[in-house]
Predict the 3D structure of the following.
Amino acid sequence: MIRAVIISMALLIWAEIALSQDVQFSQPYNTPLFLNPAFAGHTGGNRISTVYRNQWPGIEHNYQAMGAGADFHLGGVNGGLGITFVRDIAGTHRLSNTLAAFQYSQHIKLSKKSHLAVGVQAGYGQRSFDDSNLFFSDQVINQTSTSYEVQNLFPVTHFGDVSAGVLYYRGDSWLGVSLHHINQPNQSLLGAEDRLPAKFSVHGGWVLPFHQLYAKPGNRMVRFLFNYKSQGNWDQLDLGGMYTIWGINLGVWYRGIPLKPYQPGYQNNESIVMLFGYELPQGLGFAYSYDLTISRLAGHSGGAHEISAYYEFNQRPKRPRKRIVPCAKF
């Protein structure tokens, strides 16, 4: 009984927050275009990637998300072009949010070692749910198979979406700022007005090499990383690091803001994220992460599993590689 009450209360809070919150991936740098459109072309070559997230598998009708993207370096104009697709599904009635978007970034040389990238994004969004098994109060009262309440209910809604971002980077560090849903599109399924709140993100990191900054497989480095996100009444901080050796990436994140509770009695301590990844010399890599729940759902949610893979090709020669964004790949 106590377990059911705890899960129900946590789900109510999570559902209220999720109404105005984009999906968040535990491997943000394996979904770089979703993080910031200025990352388009950031590897100095071409890259395709995919990710799948299964959140709270211990709870029935849990939350799932998937994404795929590709970006290409435009050497002639020192820019980047990208395309990304993200979809999430949750609940008995499979409430889903889908976004397909194009990105363009322009990379500007500020000095011999520092660069600035400016990115814009234009996309098409869709929100929908499965209305095949809905049951309304007037059907019970009138003992009918149809309902008048469904007349103002739309199973699918469509909207345009605009985002932008900037990214500063040099040999050993990077700092980005992005603003998604600038136009705050209407995503209502009731024919009313339900604006999707703009999402603000600040993200960055610093690389500490053991021997040299960009190492051949075998040399070691540590990356310190952060990603702050704010959307509507919700905000959160991811803070962590990653150790790399012989193409193996080992990392850990803390997710939450302990000094700023969701509401009285509910601390913003969501999870500890543990990551493992491997990069092959041929440009192929994969990663797995597990979110260990440390909120009141600990022991009941099943955490969250996330897997991703990427392939980089037609990369620049090794010598200019120091001029690309030195962010983590996991």
Q: What stands out?
A: The domain at 2-323 is CATH 2.40.160.40 (Porin). Residues 71 and 82 are 4 Å apart (CA to CA).
